[in-house]
Structure formats: C-alpha cells, structure tokens
Amino acid sequence: LLPGRQMVPFLTGGAGSTILKGKAEPSFDLGVGTMLYTGKTAAMRWELRNHRFPSGSEEARRTSSNFEFIMGFSILR
User: Fold this and answer.
1) Which residues have CB under 8 Å from 49's CB, separation 6+?
2) Is the pLDDT of residue 1 over 70?
3) Measuring CA to CA, how many Å separate 33 from each of 9, 17, 21, 28, 77?
4) Which residue, 45, 26, 29, is CA-closest to 37?
5) In what order do the strands lie in the sheet with 62-75?
6) Predicted pLDDT at 23
C-alpha cells in the first residue's frame, strides 16, 4: 500500500473464561490487525478485537460485547 513498505494483515481469535461476581462465564474474542514494517528490524502494529461473553442474572441474560484497540511497535532481531 505504501512505496517501499510491507504491510501484513492478520486475524486473531481466542476462547477463555471471564469471572463476574464469582461466577465463571465462557468468553470468546475475534480480531483483525496489520503490521507495517518500517525497516528491516522495526514494525508498527495495530489490532482491533471484540470480546464477547454472557452476563447478567439467570432471568436477564444478555451477551456483552467489549471492543479493544491496540497499537504497538516491534523491534525484530
């Protein structure tokens, strides 16, 4: 996308457990991102993830959706 640069897209996913009020709930996350190599040993990274898990009392269950945006810088050896 940029002259002289290399951009690498990626997908992420995971499963785990979220503890709310002492009760464990299953949780899942999906995300997308890219790494933009600015040189031979350096890269900038961004990622957007959506964490989803059920919450609420037994009578009022609903699925919560939390978004997370991450930016970073990597030094490669």
Assistant:
1) 12, 29, 30, 31, 67, 68, 70
2) no
3) 6, 23, 32, 17, 22
4) 45
5) 6-20, 23-37, 42-55, 62-75
6) 82
If one counts every other C-beta atom within 10 angstroms of the C-beta of residue 30, the result is 13
List the structure tokens of 70: 């991450």
Express each pLDDT in 50-73 by its tens digit. 999 887 777 788 888 889 999 999
**Separation between Cα atoms, residue 21 and residue 54, nearest integer Å:** 13
Pull the structure tokens for residue 19: 């503890």
The answer to whether 53 and 71 have CB atoms below 8 angstroms apart is no
For the stretch 6-34, pLDDT in tens is 888 899 999 998 887 788 888 999 999 99
Predicted TM-score (pTM) of this structure: 0.72
Terminal-to-terminal C-alpha distance of the chain: 25
